[in-house]
Design goal:
CTP binds at residues 282, 292, 328, 342, 346. It is a single chain. The protein is of the alpha/beta class. The chain has 2 domains: 11-184, Flavin prenyltransferase-like (Rossmann fold, 3-Layer(aba) Sandwich), CATH 3.40.50; 193-404, CoaB-like (Rossmann fold, 3-Layer(aba) Sandwich), CATH 3.40.50.10300. The protein has helices spanning 25-34, 53-60, 71-74, 78-85, 96-103, 110-117, 130-134, 136-147, 173-184, 218-229, 257-267, 311-316, 335-345, 385-404; strands at residues 11-16, 38-43, 88-94, 122-126, 151-152, 156-159, 165-169, 193-198, 203-204, 210-211, 233-238, 250-253, 271-276, 283-285, 305-307, 324-331, 350-355, 366-373, 376-384. The strands form 5 sheets. An 8-stranded mixed sheet has the order 12-11-8-13-16-17-18-19, sandwiched between helices. A 5-stranded parallel sheet has the order 2-1-3-4-5, sandwiched between helices. The longest helix is centred in the last third of the chain and has 20 residues, at 385-404.
């Protein structure tokens, strides 16, 4: 995504708001222009307390828009002209106050007025204290803006200017440019909804103990990122994993197979592609205890188990709203035979199979896959899971359109 020609001749309106991170907008302006973009800057009054308009005017080569009521600008309806000129609007940094005012449709300064008047896509790069970021009001505003089609870039987690550590740190300018390029690239899955399950499930024996497996969720999360980069709306249903939520992806956290099945059912609305990457437990305790079971060193223990819901079969059996269904098979031997049998038996459209055990498959950064469909097969050799996910997503996309093209 660092192609210097990726933004060539694109008209980018950069909105700068009142965050200490505003000083980084100078570097961001320079990088956007270096990538070939035409950049015009608009600033809130608070932003001018952190970086001077003259700095950004010098870097962009254009006067900075500061006031909605500037007589010279508004004689030509300056904010409307700027809104029409933009191919893309980038608000970076975007403060909590800015998110709130955008969510409520305010138009009391040049930045909010331009955003309200434009038909161009809008991207937000938030920057704020971690408590402000996690506040329910901020998250509600962000969700509303995302529902209206605005995209988010960041924030990152780390040391903040206030001295605290947490999520809310402004994403570095080069990464913002990279993400903006990705957002401006129309992917093959635009307007498609992809639902992905990832990670293990934990089946409670008692409040302390559980039945689980070694899945880290890395492959499922990598697939979610690959689907998003292909333009899809992505819902990620995640079991207990220690992974950060990819930006721009809706994440639903669950623990048990029952909870995962319920979350998948609710997420199926308008689902085009379902990828069952999670390592769902096959069995769950028949009678989980409400209190911690005490250890008896003189006796063993008999644990009665019952089957869990077969989530991928449940989705594949939906005749009314059936998506393109991709399953996963983790095997220790006879990989191809077991995978082909599962493909046919569960009536899947595609299955991705991999060997596990002895540093293969689970909790590692590299993997290899054997991918099967009704009349085809492709081997994806050992590579980082992020790269593997991109190749698998390309293959899934090809088969999805092959099936759905009349």
């Amino acid at each position: 995504m660092n192609d210097s020609q990726s933004l060539m001749n694109k008209n980018i309106v950069l909105g700068v708001t009142g965050s200490i991170a505003a000083y980084k907008s100078a570097e961001l302006t320079r990088l956007l222009i270096q990538a070939g973009a035409n950049v015009r800057v608009m600033m809130t009054s608070a932003a001018t307390q952190f970086i001077t308009p003259l700095t950004l005017q010098t870097l962009s080569g254009h006067p900075v828009s500061l006031s909605l009521l500037d007589a010279d600008e508004e004689s030509a309806m300056g904010h409307i002209a700027l809104a029409r000129w933009a191919d893309h609007i980038l608000i970076a940094p975007a403060t909590a106050d800015t998110l709130s005012r955008l969510a409520f449709g305010r138009a009391d300064d040049v930045l909010t007025a331009v955003c309200l008047a434009t038909e161009a896509p809008i991207a937000l790069a938030p920057a704020m204290n971690n408590k402000m970021w996690s506040n329910q009001a901020t998250q509600a505003n962000l969700m509303l803006l995302q529902q209206r089609g605005m995209k988010t870039i960041g924030p990152d987690s780390g040391q903040q200017a206030c001295g605290e550590v947490g999520e809310g740190r402004f994403t570095e300018p080069q990464q913002i440019v990279n993400e903006l390029v990705a957002l401006m690239t129309i992917g093959p899955l635009v307007n498609q909804h992809v639902v992905i399950t990832a990670g293990p499930t934990y089946e409670a024996i008692d409040p302390v103990r559980f039945i689980g497996n070694r899945s880290s969720g890395k492959m499922g999360f990598a697939l979610a990122i690959a689907a998003m980069r292909s333009g899809a709306k992505v819902t990620l249903v995640a079991g207990p994993v220690n992974l950060d939520t990819p930006q721009g992806i809706k994440r639903i956290d669950v623990e048990s197979a029952e909870q995962m099945a319920s979350a998948v059912t609710e997420a199926m609305d308008s689902c085009s592609i379902f990828i069952a990457c999670a390592a769902v437990a096959d069995f769950t305790p028949m009678n989980p205890q409400t209190g911690k079971m005490k250890k008896n060193v003189d006796k063993g223990m008999i644990l009665e188990l019952k089957p869990t819901k077969d989530i991928v079969s449940m989705v594949a059996a939906d005749k009314k709203n059936r998506p393109f269904v991709v399953g996963f098979a983790a095997e220790t031997q006879h990989l191809a035979d077991y995978a082909k049998d599962k493909l046919k038996r569960k009536q899947l459209d595609m299955i991705a199979a991999n060997l596990v055990g002895e540093n293969k498959g689970f909790a590692v950064d590299d993997n290899a896959l054997e991918v099967f469909w009704s009349d085809g097969h492709k081997r994806l050799p050992l590579m980082p899971k992020s790269q593997l996910a991109e190749q698998l997503m390309t293959l899934i996309t090809e088969r999805f359109y092959a099936k759905n093209t009349i």
